[in-house]
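Collaborator request, handled under Task 6.
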Amino acid sequence: MSLSDQLPPLPKLSPSLAASLPMIRLLDLPLELLIEILSYLGHKDLLKSRLVCREIYNTIKYSVELSYYIELAADDMVDGLEGRGRWTSQPATNFSKTAAADGARWNGRSA
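Structure tokens returned to the collaborator:
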């Protein structure tokens, strides 16, 4: 079941009310909210969304949280299903796996 299936339907707006509302762009949102929204994308979609524009690219690149998730996916250490939001439920476990692999490489052993 997708996230959109779980949400209640949006109310219908009259055309006059819709025309009177200000247009808000995604990039007009506060940075914290934009990162929160992007955090619900899977790692493949995050990588693709970097191609949309420079501002989204920089947001993903310089967000520690989003970059960490992409790194976890690159190391094949992402918990749960892709695109379900708030990616990993066990960051300490993932960190220890990464640290162990890095330590093995540092000591000349393969991970």
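The cover message to the collaborator said: "The radius of gyration is 19 Å. The longest helix spans residues 91-106. Please let us know whether this matches your experimental observations."
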